[in-house]
Amino acid sequence: MKRTGKKFRWNYTALAFAIPCVGMLFVMLISKYEPFGKYSMLYSDMYHQYYPFFVAFRRAIRSGSGLLYTWSVGMGMDYLGLISYYLASPLNLLSVLVPEVWLLEFFSLLVPVKLGFAGMFFAIFLKKLFGKNDASIAVFGGFYGLCAWALGYQWNVMWLGTFALLPLVALGTVCLLKEKKCFLYTVTLFLSVYSNYYIGFFTCIFVFLLFFVYEICRWGGWKKLFADFGRIALFSVLALGMTAILTFPALSALQTTQSSVNNFPTGFRLNIAKENTLKGLLDAMRQVAGNMGGSIEPTFKEGLPNVYCGIFSILLMFLYLMAKNIRRRDKCCAVGLLLFFNVSFIIRQLDFIWHGFHFTNMIPYRFSFLYSFVVLYMAYRAWLMRRRFRPAQIVIAGMLTAGVLACSNELFETVPLELGSLTLQIPLYFIYNLIFLVLYLTVMLYGQLEVPEGITERQKMRARAKRNRQRARTRILALSVMGVELISTLVCFGLYFTGTGVSNYPKGTTYTASVIRYMYEREDDTEYSVCRIVFGAEPRDQEVYAYLLEHWRTLRFSPPRPGTEHLPPPKSPKRRQREARRMTQAAGIGTKAQQALKLQQEQGKQARLARTRQQREAEEARKFQLRQARRKEKHRGH
Predict the structure, then answer these.
(1) Cβ contacts of residue 112 below 8 Å, gap of 6+?
(2) For residues 122 and 144, is the Cβ–Cβ distance under 8 A?
(3) How do 39-40 and 500-501 pair as beta strands?
(4) Rounded Cα gap, residues 43 and 447, in angstroms
(5) pLDDT tens-digit profile of 32-67?
(6) pTM
């Protein structure tokens, strides 16, 4: 908030940062997530991949060890390839300033901070593009930062940086094509791809689409088209070239993964749809449109595309299509983008291309945030012209919005509501969306007050003053209802998202330190012992850590063997052959672990033989006593 004279003027871009950031922090506080409680937002791969990678990355930077190759993963791998996907965000570099005991808290706070940047950058996009600087840019920025994609996939923290930068890349594209200013476009596209090349690939496709949409809507002839194409191609190559230090190692690393053997799908195959027909395509499009409603659980791993970005956004989107001041080609291009995204979710060939010529393993439709971006752009343009819509247009837009919301699969799904000993089944989706739709329609219709004709000039002045006051109240009411919807969205997310307990997380606790110290003590006298634990299937690292933390005191090791000794001075080849032959004959072939296990097996075998011999001798003695007893009885009988 800035002070100008005696009045305070809000910094609305900072407010746009605060709405998603503080909102997410409030959810973390209520749910007792780190750093406010004993639970954490480490979810799925975030628990056993993203956070351990983050800790190892910080240690590598602090220790000055190399970032080109690492032995910490498997038998060693290209470290730059891993960094380019998981760890390239510039915010990760700040972790070197944080003590290691606070790393989990720092890592958890990256989520609200990045969502805050997403809201702020979208507000800057609206401010520069439309010349507005009021509370509306902050609220619409909040809807972008807290859209369903951001809440559903927030646990993929490495994606959020590129998601946040999308509005600045779009703004830079417009500045490059309209004003021939290249700095913003080049820098933001570089940061988007550098932070995460995977989501950056979606951004590059969107820039390609945005270029053609801009040229169609602002047509200036073929000469201008080719000039603009050359300009955007030049600075795109420059931005992508600056990311080569990470994208080339990533491309090389991808050739060794399963992603390199995916085949392009053939035939007419559909996602979501129950049948691969035109009817199935239309039904799948209906389901995607219905997922724009509120109160729906975001897709965390599997489900429909995350396309929710506010109920008011749907209403304003239809008003955008009815606006007379917006050119028809602008409307056609906006609708064309939404339809293209919609069918891209469904047609497998398009879905395959969007995801880098690869079918995803869970977490589907990862580019659905582009859909929300276009919807919010359309909604904000209609918001700026809200005073020009007639009541009939608002009612028609409300009916169309109700039709979209009615397409949801959860229209009449119920949830249990406990009131003491009474349990009621409540159609949450229906009630939630109906309430907000009615509120928005009421607010929009309330502001439609016209100045009557045929009255005196003094009466006109009073009518205009009354209309202006009513419009101001309408604006405040609409933004207030949007704020309530944002709060409701966060409440629903807090109810649907399940955190993770971190009390037993292997992060350098005293138990882990005890295990490491115990293992070192076994090698104090240059002796080597191993322990064999059968897990069954190939265990994950966290399963091994959890087992060690719980059972390390009861581990059963093999008998010690001599440890590694210093190599003697070089000997002649023949002498080394003779010694190798003698060592092979004496100790056998195998690693130290194999030899130690072999020794343990031999000792077990000797113990079994001894037990068998004792049992056999005892059985022979028993039989001998029986024979002796029978002889005595036979002798007494004679």
Answers:
(1) 20, 21, 22, 23, 24, 25, 28
(2) yes
(3) antiparallel
(4) 45
(5) 888 888 888 888 888 888 888 898 888 888 888 778
(6) 0.77
